[in-house]
Amino acid sequence: MEQTDAAKAERLTSQRARMLPVLAVLFLGQQASYFSGGWEGDRTVDHVRISAWLVLSVVLLLALTTGGGWIYSKRVRDLANDESTRAHRADAFQWGFIAAMGACILMYGISLFEPVGGREAVHMVMTIGLATALIRFGWLERRAQS
Amino acid sequence: MTERLENDIKGRRTELGLTQAELAEACGVTRKTVNTVENGVFSPSALLAIKLARALNVTVEELFQIAD
Question: Which of B32, B51, B52 to mutate against chain A (most A CBs within 10 Å)?
């Protein structure tokens, strides 16, 4: 039986609320390899590792910004990005921004004691900011559904 | 002082025999948004407040009140 647009949007919002925090935790978990394996490297495996982080960061950022559900029609995506979703996203961006600023202060503090490269700093700020926003968005969306 | 918006969406919706999903569809939003407005978690925009009032056949003032 064909689902209505409203039912599809409900399913999309529900899946998104469950998936984004899980992806954020996986994203944070992926960072362990950077701390254990170092930040830089010229081997092929190092380039793959750094590219994987960047690709995942961009995908997660796009999912958070657009609401995801790219396989669905515009009507379903618009419905899934309704007023409360946009308010939750704005709140999540605010949290992400504050967390990113906190990471900047932390990196600045660390740089007083040991040199910190630009790539390392960007990595930390982006990871902390994005993960915080994703977790906050997922939490707000899940709370709204219960 | 933090002002709070109260509403009678649940009462009115129940009177009309509508589910949250049916009301949501009538207003062009998801059930989640109706749920958050109904529970006072989310304050709707003027546009959504008017849509909700129209769907429930009442005025905005009858549906929403500022809590004392």
Answer: B32
pLDDT for A100 equals 97
Listed by start position, the domains of chain B span 5-66
Q: What is the CATH number of domain B5-66?
A: 1.10.260.40
- Domain boundaries in chain A? 5-145
ipTM score of the complex? 0.84
Q: Is A69 exposed, middle or buried (0-12, 13-18, 19+ CB in 10 A)?
A: buried
Sign of CA dihedral A83, A76, B20, B16: positive
Quick check: A84 and B32 CB within 8 A? yes
Residue from B30, B39, B45, B47 whose CB has the most chain A CBs within 10 Å, to mutate: B30
**Confidence band for B1, pLDDT divided at 50, 70 and 90:** low
Choose among A90, A31, A85: nearest CA to A57.
A31
pLDDT (tens digit per residue) in A93-145? 999 999 999 999 999 999 999 998 888 888 889 999 999 999 999 999 999 88
Residue of B nearest to A80 (CA): B30
Q: Do A10 and B35 touch (CB under 8 A)?
A: no
CA pseudo-torsion sign A89, A93, A94, A96: positive
Mean pLDDT of chain B, nearest integer: 92
- The C-alpha atoms of residue A3 and residue A26 are separated, in whole angstroms, by 31
